[in-house]
Specification:
This protein folds into 2 domains: 218 residues, Jelly Rolls (Sandwich); 93 residues, Jelly Rolls, CATH 2.60.120.10. 11% of the residues lie in helices and 36% in strands. It contains 5 helices and 24 strands. The strands form 6 sheets. It has a 7-stranded antiparallel sheet with strand order 1-22-19-24-17-16-15, with no helix packed on it. A 6-stranded antiparallel sheet has the order 2-3-4-11-6-9. A 4-stranded antiparallel sheet has the order 18-23-20-21, with no helix packed on it.
Length: 341
């Protein structure tokens, strides 16, 4: 089957905490005047599906290609409840997001339907001075102390605050209470779920409704991991050569993330033996397929998310400038990740 690289039409999500930096940082053509918090780049959910942008498959949804290309696209990568196993976004936070948590396995099993476990990771694309995230609980915070803080409006005191800068990467498995801080733009890699339980929203009023946004305190507390066990998955590994540098950032059961840097004017075969997703952060180049039926060249630049099918053959990479991207892979079913890389 003559498969080829895929790029998708972004789905922009207006958010009261959003801004306009996805335009300046990632070349997104945002709707005039809109305050955009999220750009969904690759998604397969009940009410949102990515559409291919350009090329021979232009205009077709990801679900159609999963059906038609099958193993030529996935090659052993397990689906998530029948869905493409990744959801990839860019987020622009001009205000701190709500303090939230995503369903753990027990909650997902109990509620069923579209409630699925949500593991995610944030890669910091830009952080203004003072940029931060909340991830997990401060030392010594147990359920009783947290519930008391919620009742008294002191949730922030219970959270672990981390100052961040460009290039940082953080893994947030389900059950991790968290919030993206004001002034931070991230690429988010996650499992295909859009269920979020807010435990605090800083008394924010939605200008569209004139009311405070809904909280889900009971569900959130049931999901939060109070064990105090550090999150695994962030053990780093690094390999470099004259032309490229590869750094493993996240190794978890649902996805692996590596940061790849390539020098300018590099020509090399694309070597993968399975499905790969690139989140392009810097630079531009082309993927060339001279032996394919359509004889195509796929250009990419900062802000693009490129899906490389497993059966991509005889493809080569040409970088016009120095390029940096995040390389996302999904472990095959039954694979036990090795955090050492």
């Amino acid at each position: 089957m003559d498969v080829h690289p895929l790029l998708f039409q972004p789905i922009f999500k207006p958010k009261i905490w959003g801004g306009r930096r996805l335009s300046t940082l990632l070349n997104k053509s945002l709707p005039d005047g809109a305050i955009i918090g999220e750009s969904w780049e690759l998604v397969d959910l009940e009410d949102e599906r990515s559409i291919v942008r350009g090329g021979p498959a232009g205009g077709r949804p990801i679900t159609q290609l999963m059906s038609e290309w099958g193993e030529h696209l996935l090659d052993g990568v397990p689906l998530c409840d029948g869905r493409f196993p990744l959801l990839i976004k860019f987020l622009d936070a001009t205000q701190t997001l709500s303090v939230q948590v995503h369903p753990d396995a027990a909650m997902a099993a109990r509620l069923g339907g579209s409630v699925r476990v949500k593991h995610e990771a944030w890669y910091v694309i830009d952080a203004q001075p003072g940029g931060f995230i909340y991830r997990g609980l401060a030392p010594g915070v147990d359920r009783h102390r947290f519930e008391q803080a919620v009742a008294e409006g002191r949730v922030e005191e219970c959270l672990h605050r981390i100052d961040v800068r460009k290039g940082d990467c953080y893994y947030l498995p389900s059950g991790t209470v968290h919030a993206l801080g004001a002034g931070v733009v991230v690429a988010e890699v996650q499992t295909p779920s859009d269920v979020t339980y807010r435990v605090d929203d800083f008394n924010r009023v939605d200008p569209g409704t004139g009311r405070r946004r809904e909280l889900h305190i009971e569900q959130a507390i049931e999901c939060i991991d109070f064990s105090g066990t550090p999150s695994a998955g962030e053990q780093r590994a690094h390999v470099a050569s004259v032309w490229t540098a590869v750094t493993r950032l996240v190794t978890c059961e649902s996805f692996h993330i590596e940061r790849v840097r390539m020098v300018e004017e590099l020509d090399m075969p694309i070597p993968y033996g399975g499905m790969v997703v690139w989140i392009v952060l810097e630079g531009n180049g082309q993927i060339e397929m001279p032996k394919s039926d359509h004889g195509g060249t796929t250009a990419f630049s900062a802000g693009d998310v490129v899906l490389l099918p497993a059966a991509l053959r005889d493809a080569s990479l040409h970088t016009e400038t120095e390029c940096v991207w995040l390389e996302i892979t999904v472990p095959e079913a039954g694979h036990s990740p090795d955090p050492s890389g």
